[in-house]
Amino acid sequence: MGDAVTSQGRELVLVLGPGRSGTSTMAGALARTGFQVPDALDGDDSNPTGFYEPAWAVDFHTRLLERVCVHTLDGDPAAYDELAKVLADPEPGAELTDWLATELAAHPRLVIKDPRLVWFRDLWVTAAQSAGVSPAFVVMLRHPAEVSSSRSEFYDAPQGTAVAGWINVVLLTERLTRGSRRAFVTYADLLTDWRPVLSTMSARLDLHLDPAPDVSTHPIDEFIDPGAASTRTRLVGARRARLAAGSGRSDVRDHHRVGVGWGPGLDPGRSGRTRRGVRPRARRRGRDRARALAAQGSARPTSRRTRG
Fold it and tell me: Among 31, 167, 240, 273, which one is most buried in terms of CB atoms within 10 A?
């Protein structure tokens, strides 16, 4: 038995990747194979099937990022260095350790997903080890053009800023998880045929999936449509055609919704909260700052992130 499964049969999977990369789909699939998402946020228009993000973790990560003005998809290569003082503070680590221990005691098999999580990889590994678990990492990948287009549609983020952030966060994710038990999964592969993807991933990470992917009638079948990839390709092509014709923005909601849906009785949203209810002022500040940086068209000041 590998390190991902340790004392008392506990398992912890941390799903990483920039937002709009298929992280919700992966977490939702794992939630249908015996893993729990504690106090999950409800879905909204940008992700009607649910985010599969623990509300506590989103609050925790957002609060710490705000301290040093680092954003979820920060394009500055020096952003991680700005977090050094936060990571060195023992209080957040103790807070996370207590929360994770409590959740694992209630649900021994957890999947935790939040696009902000990668910035705090070390805190999570330390907290998991304190609980007797070595986490497994699943890194979701999607073409940056698709990610930036989706983020522009739903989060009003400039596409150039989104691509820069994608590059920085993906490289950071690879570096921080190097040497850890990890698996890279593309969103396109997951949509095309989820069974071999999850089979390979679970074998690589030594995870127990229940029900197993080879079960003929599986809850994931109601969640991921195997034909979604071809439909997604048609939608992207139609979008490009509309933009070329000058018709404006396409409906990326159709692009994202295709291939994922609720299974009977599987709604994970127990928190009664959506992302829009989680620190909305911080989200507005980040969006305004991204617009300002894009308008400047230059790098941030030399003395980065001057605090007022």
Answer: 31
